[in-house]
Input
Amino acid sequence: MREELIKLLQERVGLDRQQAETAADVAIEFIKQRSPEQIRSLIGGEGPLGGIFGR
Output
């Protein structure tokens, strides 16, 4: 999902690859910090899905 978010930021916002990666990482961290613990483990790579955002 991280890669999809990066591509979306490049296409829709016009960010270059590095900017899109940084923006994606910030967005993912923001979501992780504000999510319940059960969701955080899925997003962060600690759960059975290995982290839906690939980090």
